[in-house]
Amino acid sequence: DVKVTQSSRYLVKRTGEKVFLECVQDMDHENMFWYRQDPGLGLRLIYFSYDVKMKEKGDIPEGYSVSREKKERFSLILESASTNQTSMYLCASSILDVANNEQFFGPGTRLTVL
Amino acid sequence: QKEVEQDPGPLSVPEGAIVSLNCTYSNSAFQYFMWYRQYSRKGPELLMYTYSSGNKEDGRFTAQVDKSSKYISLFIRDSQPSDSATYLCAMSRNTGNQFYFGTGTSLTVIP
Could you read off the pLDDT of A56-102 as tens digits, one per residue? Predict the structure, then answer.
């Protein structure tokens, strides 16, 4: 079974802190994604990556950066956390395959910025 | 206008009812249509996956895609309390492309 793990289930940080959210997948997937999920807004794509050291902006990249130094790991960085970044953050991965379009999700990290 | 529209509900039905969940979209380039189920405090998991128009059935679940109307549906027959979850539609232009999600519909099946 594909497993996507996220470093923390719950995080509480203060405004201005630098925050690191880690995601690891164990199925050698090429693609990895970071979303945030908010009530009434659904899942919105922050960044994604198709390969090591490669990144692409999603719909809402402002205030975030990412790092993919190894294939299995994709990190989301909040350079200076703000209260409007309080949200559920979901990581996903998928295989690079023309016949397969499934994204596998981690359990999520609920981040609160005070 | 959002790429994908989904009624957030909440929807509450008695056990055994037929449930109909729907999404509309605006981008005619979408070819891949997915339904994800998300239990409380968990990540979404893929429930149904359809390419282009047509129907797909898997047990109690049927996914329908009508590309001419830009409308997709998920039907749940003989609904069970264990079906209580948030259902998210998602779609993409090609495999490996960005997914566009609906806001999710919260469903409760009452025993």
Answer: 999 999 999 999 999 999 999 999 999 999 999 999 998 876 666 78
CA B32 to CA A19: how far, in whole Å?
34
Q: What is the pLDDT of residue B94?
A: 76
* CA atoms within 13 Å, Cβ hemisphere of B2: 17
| Contact (CB<8Å) A40/B46 | no
Q: How far apart are CA B87 and CA B57, in angstroms?
A: 17
Flag whether residue A23 sits within 8 Å of chain B, measured between CB atoms: no
Write the pLDDT tens digit of every residue in A26-66.
989 999 999 999 988 889 999 999 999 899 999 999 999 99
CB contact under 8 A, B8 and A40: yes
Whether residue A28 lies within 8 A of chain B, CB to CB, comes out as: no
To the nearest 10°, report the CA torsion of B61, B1, A107, A27: 80
Q: Give the residue with greater pLDDT, A100 vs B107.
A: B107
> Is some CB atom of chain B closer than 8 A to the CB atom of A41?
yes
Instruction: Record the tokens describing residue A34, joined without a space.
Output: 């970071």
